[in-house]
Amino acid sequence: MSLGSVPLKYKISIDRDQCMKCMRCVDNCSYGVYRIEDDKIIIDSRKCTACHRCISMCPRDAIMLQERPVDYRSHPLWTTEAREDVINQARSGKIILSGMGNAVDYPIIFDRLVLDACQVTNPSIDPLREPMELRTYIGKKPEKLDFTMKDGDVELNTKLAPNLKLDTPIMIGHMSYGAISLNAQLSLAKAVAKTGTFMGTGEGGMHEAIYPYQDHSIVQIASGRFGVDIDYLERGAAIEIKVGQGAKPGIGGHLPGEKVCADVSCTRMIPLGSDAISPAPHHDIYSIEDLAQLVRSLKEATNWEKPVFVKIAAVHNVAAIAAGIARSSADAVVIDGFKGGTGAAPKVFRDNVGIPIEAAIAAVDQKLNDQGIRNEVSIIASGGLRNSADLAKSIALGADAVYIGTASLIALGCRVCGSCYRGLCPWGIATQRPELVERIDSDVGSENVANLIRGWTLELSELMGAAGLNSIESLRGNRERLRGYMLDEGLLDVLKIESVGA
Amino acid sequence: MCGIIGVIDRTMARMDGSSIKKALSLMDERGSGEGAGYVAYGIYPDYSDCYAIHVFFDNLLEPKTNVDRILQKWGRIVYQEEIPTYEQPNLKREHIPWRYFFKPYTDLMVGTTNPDDDNVKRLVMTINSTVEGALVFSSGINLGVFKASGWPEDVANFYRIEDYKGYIWLAHNRYPTNTSGWWGGAHPFNLLDWSVVHNGEITSYGTNRRYVESHGYQCTMSTDTEVVAYLFDLIGRRHGLPSDMVVEALAPPFWDEIDEMPEKQEEFMRALRLTYGPALMNGPFAIVIATKDGIVGFTDRIKLRPLVVGENDSKLYISSEEAAIRIMDPDVERIYMPRAGEPVIGRVTQ
Amino acid sequence: MEPVVIDAKGVHYTPLNKQIRAAIASGVKEIVLNNVLGQRFIGNGLRGDAKITINGVPGGDLGMFMSGPECEVFGDAEHAPGNTMDKGSLVIHGSAGDAVAHSMRGGKVFVEGNIGYRGGIHMKEYEGKRPILVVGGTSHAFLGEYMAGGLILVLGIGHEPAVQDRGIGSGIHGGEIVIRGDVSDRLLGVGAKKVEFTGEDLQRLTPVIKEFCGRFDIDPSPFLDTNYSRIIPASSRPFAGKYTWE
C-alpha cells in the first residue's frame, strides 16, 4: 500500500496584487519552486527549503512563506518530525541525511549563564577611552620562564614556541572548499585578513585563490588527507589535525562525487567526480600515542615552525582526551560542541551524539587546570556560538578563543535552511555550481563577515569594560564573572560556577 | 575602600609599632572598623631559625589538639604560647590568637628544592582547609601578623604592637565587601615570607585563583587578597623571578607598549606575558608586598587606586595617603606618585 | 660528491632530521645513516632528489609527506612508511608494520618482505600522480581499505596463497589491487570486486614487476608468467545509495 505524500513543510504564496512579475524569484530559486506558465508564476511549494533567497530578492515583498501549513494531530511524543522520519525510512530504508547544526530543542546552556558587571567596588572601564586588550596568542606557553641575570641584564633562555597572534579571539572554523564554494571561502579569507585573525581551510586542501591569505589560514589535515602535501603544510600559519566534528562525532564524512568538480578535484588532489571519503578515524591514529606521533610528524616536517592544533568533538570523556592531547606536543586543543554546524550529517548523529560546548569547555579547562598545565596549551571552542555573549561566556568558562562557522555563513547570506548537502545553495555558499557560486562577490562578502567580527569584538570590549577587565587574560577562565540561572546543581558543579544571587 | 601603609628601614634598624599605629588611625575614614592588621619583620630574633606560626583558635580543645598533632608529625614545636592580648572595650574577642615556633623536618618533603618552605606551605593549606576552628594567618620566619576585626587603634592596642620591633611594617585598614569583617579576612595576608596588604578589588580573581590552585595552593580565606601572596610565592619563590619582574608579570605593560620596545626587551616581555597571562591582575588595586628582603608596592595598570611613596634616608614609605606618611615621619624628604603598574621597591641593603 | 655519512646511534630524530636537511640544503645528493634504531620521521617532508641509505631499523612514518627523495632501508621498517607521501621512493629490504603507504598520493613504496594490517589504506591518485605499493611477501588484513587510486601489487613470494587475510579493498573507490594467484571471494571487502586479469594488465604491470625485482635482485621471470587476481572498486561512489534526505 502506498504511504502517500506527507504534508508540505513550507507553503509559498505570492500576493498577486503586489507582484510585478519581475521574475527574480524564478531566476533566484535553484530548487525549482517557481516556473512560468502562460505568463503566470506557478509555485511548487513542496520544493521549498525556506532558504529565503526569493523573499530577499523580491522588490515588492510579495512572497509569503508559512512553515507547516498542515497540522498533524498534536502529540507530545509522536511529533510531526518523528512521524515523518518514520515514513521517510519506511519508504527508503536509508540513513536520514541532514544539514546544519543540532535541531533538537535541548536547553541552551549559554542562555542560562549571565555575565557580571561592576558597581561601586570596582569601576567599569570605558573601552573608548582606555586601553582594552583582546590580543590573544594561541599556542604552547612555557610553564615558567628560564632566564639568567648578567650585570643587571636579563638573558632569556626560554625559547617561545610559535604562537598565532590574534587581534580578536574570534576565528573562523574549518569549512572545506568542496563543502562550501570558493567565493564563500575567499570571502572568509579576506575577512580574517582584514580583522587580524585566522580561518580554517577545512580538510579539502587550499585552492590557489586562497594563497594570498595563507598567512591567515590554518590548514587542516583530516583522515582523508585531501590536498595534503608538504607545500600545503608549509603554507598554513598553523596546522590542525581534525579528529572529530561536533555535528557528527565518531563518524567520518564524505563529499559526494557530484560536488567534486575540476577545481575541487585538483585542490583535494583526487579524481574528478569520485566521492571524497574521510574515514571515521585517521588510520595512523588508533591510540593517543599515535596522535602524538602525527603531531610530531607534522612538526618535524615543518621544522617545528608551525603550531599544531588537534580538533575533537565534545564527547562524554572530552576532558581526559584533551588532557592526553595536551601532552602530545600539540599547541592547542579545539573542542567542537554538539550544536556545531555541518554541510551534511546523519540526522541521528547531528541530533543525539556529543555534549554541549559550554560543559565541554568547563570540563577541559578544569581538567587541565587540575593537572597544572592549563596555560601551557590553548583551548579553542566552537559549536553553535551565535553572538558576542556566547563568545564572552565561552572565554569566561575557559576558552582562549573561539571558532565561528554558521554565524560567518549567515553573514554571507545563509538562512540556515539546512539543505547544504543538496549542493544547490541559492546563496552560492554550499554549492559548486558556477552560476550559483557567482552570486557571492568576495569583496562584498568579506566586508559583511569582517563587520560581524568587528561588531562582536566591540561588544566583547564593552562587556569586558563593564566587568572591569581591560585584558582578555583576566576574562579567561574567570568563572567568578559568570552565574548560572536556573541550572541544576550537577551542571553548576561541572561549570564550576555559582547560581545567580550566590 | 581600605587604607594601606608600609615602611622599611633599609638598614634593618628596627622600629616599634607606635608610629604605624598613628598612621593607620589617621586613615580611619578609609575603613569601617571591621578589620585592621599589622605585620612586622624582625620581631622574633630569639627564634630567628623557626617558622613563627600564628593561629586563630576558636577554642583550645579540639582545634588545637589537631593542629599540635599535625605540626608534631611534620616537625618540632620549639616553643608555643598564647599571643599576649589586652582587652579593648570596642573589640570583641572572637578567637584565641596563638603562636608556635616551629622547625619542620627537612627530610620529610621530597621532590622540591625548598623542602622547609614547601613543608610549611602544605601544612598551612592542610590546617586551613581541614581543621575546623583553626586558621593559620601567619607562617613566616622572624615575622608576625597581628590582625582582628575592629578599628586600627583598637587592634593595635589589643596586641599592643608598640611592644614589637621590626625593620619592615605593613598595616591595613579594612572596609570589607567580599567577606564580612571576620578576623581571617583582615589584612595583611601572609604565607611563609610573603605578606600582602591590598586596597581595591582584584577583578581577575577568578582567573588568578584558578592559576594558583592549579599549582597546589588552596584559597581558603574567601577573599581576593590572599591570591596575591600565593602569586608572589609561586612566581617569586618557586619560579625564582625577582620582585620587580613579578610585578611586571602581574601588572604588565600593554601590548602596544611592548610592541614598541627594543627587540630583546620585547621578546622578554612577550614571553613573560604569555607565560604568566593567568597571573595578570586586573581591577582597581594598590598593593604592598613584603618579604624579609624588602617591600614592593604597585598599582593596577590604569591606576585606579592611589599610592604615594615617601623617602627619608634609609626609610621608604608606601601608603594610600600622603598624610599617613607625614604623620609617621614629619621629616620625610621626598614624596612622589609612582606610575601605574610601576613597582616601587625598597630592599634591605645588607 | 662523496656521500655524507651520519652515525645515528643514540641520536634523537629531531637533530638527525636537521642534519639531513642541512646536508641536502648544502647540495649533498647521497646520505648514509648508520646505526639507525627507532628514529621516527626520517625524510619527513623532504624535497629534492637525494638518496638516503638507512642502515638499521627506522621508526614510524618514514618518508611521511616526502616529495622526491629515495630512502633505501637495509632493515625492517615500522609503522606507516610512506604515509601521505607525495613523490620519491622507499625501498625496504625487509618487512614493514601497519598502515604502509597510508594516504600515499605519489611515488613508490617497495617492501621486500611482508606488510602489516591496512597496507595502502586510502591511497589516492590525482592527475599524473599514481602511487605504487609493491609487496614481495604477503599482506595482512584490510589491504587497500578505502583506496581511492593507485596500484597495490602483492607478489606473495613464499606464500601460498599470496594473501590469506580478509577485508581486501573494503570501501575501495579508486585504483586497483593486484595479487598473485587466486584470491578467495570471501576475502574481499565491501565495495570491492574481482575482475579478470588480462594480458594487457600484465603488460601494463611488467615494468613495475621488473623494477621491483631489480631492486631486490630477484629473478622476475616467474612473476611475468603467472596469473594474478585484480580487484577494483564496484563503484566510485560506494556510499551514494546510503542516504535519504531529511
Automatic annotation (TrEMBL), chain A:
GO annotation, biological process: glutamate biosynthetic process
Domain of life per record: Archaea
Catalytic activity: 2 L-glutamate + NADP(+) = L-glutamine + 2-oxoglutarate + NADPH + H(+)
Residue positions binding [4Fe-4S] cluster 1: 19, 22, 25, 58
Domain 4Fe-4S ferredoxin-type: 10-38, 39-68
Alphabetical list of CDD domains matching this protein: GltS_FMN (cd02808)
Region forming the signal peptide: none
Coiled-coil zones: none
Residues noted as binding [4Fe-4S] cluster 2 in the record, renumbered to the chain: 29, 48, 51, 54
Molecular function (Gene Ontology), one example: metal ion binding
Pfam family, one: Fer4_7
UniProt cofactor(s): FMN
InterPro entries hit by this protein: 4Fe4S_Fe-S-bd (IPR017896), 4Fe4S_Fe_S_CS (IPR017900), Aldolase_TIM (IPR013785), GltB (IPR024188), GltB_archl_type (IPR043578), Glu_synthdom (IPR002932)
Ranges that cross the membrane: none
Enzyme Commission no: 1.4.1.13
Keywords: 4Fe-4S, Amino-acid biosynthesis, Flavoprotein, FMN, Glutamate biosynthesis, Iron, Iron-sulfur, Metal-binding, NADP, Oxidoreductase
Family, similarity comment: Belongs to the glutamate synthase family.
Protein name: Archaeal glutamate synthase [NADPH]
Taxonomic lineage: Archaea, Methanobacteriati, Methanobacteriota, Stenosarchaea group, Methanomicrobia
UniProtKB/TrEMBL annotation, chain B:
Active site location: 2
Annotated GO MF terms: transferase activity
Residues covered by the Glutamine amidotransferase type-2 domain: 2-349
Keywords for this protein: Glutamine amidotransferase, Transferase
InterPro entries (UniProt xref): GATase_2_dom (IPR017932), Glu_synth_lsu_1 (IPR012375), Ntn_hydrolases_N (IPR029055)
SUPFAM superfamilies: N-terminal nucleophile aminohydrolases (Ntn hydrolases)
Cited Pfam families: GATase_6
Lineage top rank: taxon: Archaea
Family annotation (PANTHER family): AMIDOPHOSPHORIBOSYLTRANSFERASE (PTHR11907)
Protein name per the record: Glutamine amidotransferase family protein
Source organism of the structure: Methanolobus zinderi
From TrEMBL, chain C:
GO MF annotation list: oxidoreductase activity
Ranges of residues in domain Glutamate synthase alpha subunit C-terminal: 14-184
Highest taxon listed in the record's lineage: Archaea
InterPro entries reported for this sequence: Archaeal_gltB (IPR035710), Glu_synth_asu_C (IPR002489), Glu_synth_asu_C_sf (IPR036485), Glu_synth_lsu_3 (IPR012061)
Transmembrane parts of this sequence: none
PANTHER family, sorted: GLUTAMATE SYNTHASE ALPHA SUBUNIT C-TERMINAL DOMAIN-CONTAINING PROTEIN, TUNGSTEN FORMYLMETHANOFURAN DEHYDROGENASE, SUBUNIT C (FWDC)
Protein name (record): Glutamate synthase alpha subunit C-terminal domain-containing protein
UniProt lineage: Archaea, Methanobacteriati, Methanobacteriota, Stenosarchaea group, Methanomicrobia
